Amino acid sequence: MSVTGTLVQSYAVCPRQAWLMARQMEPEREFELLVEGRLNQLEHYERSMKEIELPGMKIDRVRREGGRLVFSEIKKSTRYLPAARLQVGYYLLRLREEGIEASGEILVPKERFREEVELTPELEEKVSETVEKLERLLESYQPPPARRIRYCGKCAYAEFCWS
Ligand code: SF4
Questions:
Q1: Does residue 16 have its Cβ closer than 6 Å to ligand 1?
Q2: Which residue intervals define the domain DUF83 in the entry (predicted)?
Q3: Could you tell me the pTM of the whole model?
């Protein structure tokens, strides 16, 4: 089971959620989505797309600004903003490892919210820490116990955890 951007975000919300999600996720499907992805639809970026075919990344939208690649992660609400920053940071780190310098932005159209995300040394450290912890978690045969947090109400696993 490998780390994906979605799992990084989930882990930041609730490690148990990330564990449960990882058991349900189909990594090949995520990879296919990436290959077919919306990135590909923008002919400008077809070459870039080929260069960044990375499993575990599903980027919502990408454009070029100056010489730089800027991608957007679109969210439904600002509720999970710290987790979304980590997810975007994870993508930026993966892209950098592939030799692609990019920046990211989080868009929440419903709230007319936009935030730029750069891979600062602080964010990079946080992402690396999270990935390490997540990798350890994914090796475990048992999910962490359920702990009631403010995100439980909207979580897809609420019934499973609390019924
Ligand atoms: S319901 Fe709560 S404890 Fe269970 S996975 Fe979701 S966020 Fe975590």
A1: yes
A2: 4-163
A3: 0.80
